[in-house]
Amino acid sequence: MNKLQCLWCQRSLNYDFSVHFLVSFSSVAPTRLCTGCLDQFTPVAAPHCPKCGKFQATTQQCSDCRHWNDRMKASLISNRAFFPYKDQIKEYIKQYKLRGDYRLRLIMEPLFSNLARTNEMLVPIPVTATTIEQRGFNQVSGWFGSNQLFPALLALPKDRPQAAKGRHDRLSGPQRFVVNEKLRPACLNRDICLVDDIYTTGRTLHEAAWLLQSAGARHIRSVTLAH
Q: Which UniProt keywords apply (predicted)?
């Protein structure tokens, strides 16, 4: 009997591993959530915007996507989100990203472990060197375990955190990324999946997609934890 604690509520978890399991060298790990918490972190299947993945009452394009269509004359990405950004997921982001509880990466790791399609390059939205120094990790990279990620983008220094900015500032602020010149050749004619934690206005992912497209990427989609 192996005793663990639920990563979210800290209740004890008991797993009875059979002899067959122990000698099979299975790489399948038991979930680190209790039954009650697992229900709260189960991805939802609900009507959503076909372009950005926003959960809503209809399957029509949302106002943000119409804004980007008008502004850029083309939609560079198609995004899908696992959760609506509310309730338990908001608290999860606060505990994991803002308070730096790195253990909580394991809750979402199963969702991201098999994300990449065949011949697709996984590119996390980067964070600044200052953020890495303060927090100690990139919250997106933490969800991928040992899976190979390609840091095709680099973050420029920023004046203040995105969470402290209003909608207007998020949409109209200066460019925040540049292409990683060392990996620019690897982007040519490649399919890319951008990964971020939260889709808010869409500016972060559209900017990233535009840069990767300018570097020669063939097809770009994105996946976020929440919208």
A: Glycosyltransferase, Transferase
